[in-house]
Please model this.
Amino acid sequence: MKRSYRGLHEVVYRSTWDGRGALRKFERVASSSGERGLYQRAFWPIMSAVRELPTGTVTFLFSDIEGSTKLLEELGEGYADALERHRRVLREAFGHHAGVEVDTQGDAFFVAFERASDALAAAEEAQRDLELPVRIGIHTGEPQLTDGGGYVGIDVHRAARICAAAHGRQVVLSERAASLLDGEFRLTDLGLHRLKDLGEPVKLFQLGEKEFPPLRSLNATNLPAQPGPLVGRERELSELRGLVRDGSRLVTLTGAGGSGKTRLGLQAAAEAVDDFSDGVFWTPLAAVTDPQLVLPTVAQALGAKVPLAEYVDEKRMLVLLDNLEQVVDAAPVLSDLLERCPNLHLLCTSRALLRIAGEREYPVEPLPEEDAVALFRERAATAEPIEAVHEICRRLDGLPLAVELAAARTRLLSPSELLERLERALPILTGGRRDAPERQRTLRATIEWSYDLLGDEEQQLFRRLAVFAGSFTIEAAEAVCHADLETLEALLEQSLVRRWASGRLGMLETIREYAREQLEASDEPEEIARRHAEFFLELVRSAHVSLEALYAGGTAKLHLVRPELANVRTALDWALEHDPELGLWLCISLDQFWATQRATQSPIERMRRLEALLERAQDAPSSLLGRAYRSLGGASWLCGENDRAEAAHEKGLELFREAGDEHGETTMLFRLGMGCLGRDDERARELLEESLKRFRRLRSRVGECEALDALGSLELHSGDRKRGWELMEESIEIAREIGWAWGEVGRLQELAEVALDEGDAEEAEPRARRVLLLSRSIEDRSGRLVGLALHAWIAARRGEAADAGRLWGAIEAEVARAPMGAFDTEFFWDRYGAGIDAVRGPKFEAGRAEGCTLTLDEAIAVALGDDRASLLS
Model:
């Protein structure tokens, strides 16, 4: 045996000049000796070193031990022997299937395979023989091979992230790797997952059918997808993670524009997901200029329906406040928020500190030269010659944004040609530390250099695009900026405009600032701003979210407005100064959008904007002013300002009468009646009956439906149950007749709740079922959740504890997956919790645990059973 061992050793080292020859001799000697396993264990690292790294389509395998720190504490001195056995088993499995060891650090391996099937076979063998809980991630791609004998590219990062999402003894692979297996292995579809590389969602599979906890993915956060992986910054990520874990509840990343604060902050937030049981949330503030909107914007990101501090309370959350510098005056309210919410952590990116108690500054320095070079090569179309790339990165002071802008130019210029142009455009940088203002000048010079290289049409479009806030669509760019696709594509190729994962376009804030300066210096800023405001007024009108659109029977298209809120706010800011009447039209065209958002900021912002616009537009036509006061009254009422709401509705009534608008006048009578409910029911009844009579004369079916609903609710809750029920049923019939599904859902919900309050599950069930069916047909997510809650209550009334728990668990899981405005678990508990409280116990909790694994559609199927269509006939 020793003789064979020495012989093989000699063969390997004599053949290191020829890796392929060594491999052939290795296989021949190992096979003839009968000790193949022994030699593979002893020599696989050597053979892996001389074996050429695969090129072209390559399958990567990453592995590490889950909870290695805890194991070290448990095993003590025995950990070293366990780790050695761990490495031996893995290397033997990799060697059996032609794996090439790319890198090894501690207990972690990075291995490359020519075939996906070899990687899966190696993983399967390893997991069979390993004693320690090892997680393995596998992904196939086409990486670049560097001169230094390693790989670069998104596929390397993706494989590492897949491994990080897995659990001990679990093998997880990407859809690309799975597609190359030809049914050779039994796989379990794990669905779509967002990984911590912040790319777009990917479909993942598991080797085998063993059950594991949910993957450690980002499905419960709103962190945005990124166009590329974070390069470098390992030290910074580790230090930031330590700051957050050590109890620093406010950490502010500071640095020059373009230093990579946002990208680092996003990655640090992604890395911390496992540490915050109630979620990690991103709040972009680049488009927010009013400090009063900071907390409302955070509330919207979190899906809070109540004041933010009340919503967060003792939840363990991390919130990333991105681009905070222009609203640092919000510091006192953020300080108060932290004081009231003991488990809330804030991670901020800003060019300036908040300067409040407990703040920890974390300066973000430029990239070290090697990392800057790696970033350049990651983003460039070509990366040779390497000497020129190093010099480019030195001249750009390692600023990530400057490096990316330069790398984008390699589509037209080689690095050497690029360097020659940079030497003319930028001052030569000298050694020594450079402070933030100097770096800012370097970045500005880089952006200016990129701008100067554009053609006239490209420059014009670049500066015009600065009118957009946040992001924009191609259609908006065409309409507002007269963009053509070819010019837009040129700006994309040069990294001056970016395409987000959603398909929308946008600029990094530092670049937008420069573009804005160029627009202001041109002769067309007012023209472009007016086009912008008029475009978004028409877009909002096309979404049919005004009260007039509702009464006309239009189908609301809320999805058109949601992604454009930043642009709508920019248009409203411009209109306040230049065209208040346009601003009023924009506000009232948003009536139903504001009302249905159910988030705390909507009525407050709506009220504030309407008051400011009305102050400047008192000469507007009476019909427009009447609509504006109607909208102001609705916003004031939602804010709890009842006296203010009544005054606005009275003023609106006066203006509609002055304009001869009977429908507007009737709407104001209805609103005034609604405002009296609960404090003067007789006055409410009088006004509602008058509005019902008028709506009928005007043949306004939606108005009639609403008035009947309000009168029915008044009667149901003030004694005459029979009349109230009849009025509600009549309202439902009209809603059904005119096809107003959203209105029908709300009325059915109220009747089902009344029946359940009275203990009549049989009366409630058909209405609750129709709530689910209709909500599903119109894709009303909140209606579906309410329908499930009603079914849980029905099950509880019948004593079916497990069924009630199952549906309740599904509601909680769905809200946790994607929080939504008014609807959170507190809302459901406050409204329906008393109804299910009687069945809480072991059976309920067992069902609840099962329900947490269901998707929304699966839970609806459970609630509806097999008979899903009869009630729609």
Notes: The first helix runs from residue 2 to 14. The domain at 234-363 is CATH 3.40.50.300 (Rossmann fold). Residues 12 and 651 are 94 Å apart (CA to CA). DSSP finds 42 helices and 16 strands in the chain.
